[in-house]
């Protein structure tokens, strides 16, 4: 049995979500700026063949955030790397592991959302170094500090 209080809360949540969709649709550049940029954890000079973590900038979930469980798709020069989800009750950005296959310039992007509510993070352009050795033996050790 649904009480009028529960129906009212559902109606309010729907109205707020609708308002958010309108704001995103009418100001996509402002929305992208608010969510930050794709970030690369682990190295400022990535190397081909080594694994790194890509993170979805300032998008975090938590409590009743509209970004809870939002799927974020990461791409490298237009090719999909993978999809991560924004954290739920514990606020955390979406993350994927990226292993560049070639040296040279790579443009890393991230987009996500539901239905017509889409966000695009500012891209990250990185210069990937050639592999220093065979396999992962030439890769830097991952940080255990965080």
Report on the structure:
The protein is α+β, with helices and mostly antiparallel strands and 146 residues long. It contains two helices and eight strands. It has helices at 4-26, 28-34, and strands at residues 39-41, 52-55, 71-76, 79-85, 95-98, 104-114, 117-120, 124-128. The strands form two sheets. Strands 3, 4, 6, 7 and 8 form a five-stranded antiparallel β-sheet that branches. Strands 1-2-5 form a three-stranded antiparallel β-sheet, with no helix packed on it. Mean pLDDT is 76; it is low at 11-33.
Number of helices: 2
* Main sheet overview: 5 strands, antiparallel
Poorly predicted runs of 5 or more residues: 11-33
How many DSSP-defined strands? 8
Structural class: alpha+beta
Helical fraction: 10-25%
Radius of gyration: 19 Å
Task: Report mean pLDDT, rounded to a whole number.
Answer: 76
Termini Cα gap: 46 Å
The quaternary organization reads as single chain
How do the SSEs run, as a string of H and E? HHEEEEEEEE
Strand content: 25-35%
In short:
The chain has helices spanning 4-26, 28-34; strands spanning 39-41, 52-55, 71-76, 79-85, 95-98, 104-114, 117-120, 124-128. The chain has 146 residues and is α+β, with helices and mostly antiparallel strands.
List keywords for this structure.
single chain, 146 residues, alpha+beta, 3-stranded antiparallel beta sheet, 2 helices, 8 strands, 21% helix
Secondary-structure map:
Elements: H1 4-26, H2 28-34, E1 39-41, E2 52-55, E3 71-76, E4 79-85, E5 95-98, E6 104-114, E7 117-120, E8 124-128
Antiparallel strand pairs: 1-2, 2-5, 3-4, 3-6, 6-7, 6-8
């Amino acid at each position: 049995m649904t009480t009028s209080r529960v129906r009212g809360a559902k109606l309010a949540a729907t109205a707020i979500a609708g308002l958010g969709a309108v704001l995103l649709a009418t100001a996509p550049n402002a929305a992208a700026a608010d969510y930050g940029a794709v970030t690369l954890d682990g190295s400022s000079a990535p190397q081909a063949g080594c694994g790194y973590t890509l993170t979805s900038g300032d998008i975090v979930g938590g409590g009743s955030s509209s970004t809870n469980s939002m799927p974020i798709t990461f791409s490298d020069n237009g090719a999909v790397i993978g999809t991560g989800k924004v954290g739920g009750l514990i606020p955390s950005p979406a993350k994927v592991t990226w292993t560049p296959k070639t040296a040279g310039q790579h443009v890393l992007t991230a987009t996500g959302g539901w239905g017509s509510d889409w966000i695009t993070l500012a891209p990250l352009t990185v210069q990937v170094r050639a592999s220093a050795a065979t396999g992962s033996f030439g890769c830097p050790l991952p940080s255990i500090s965080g």
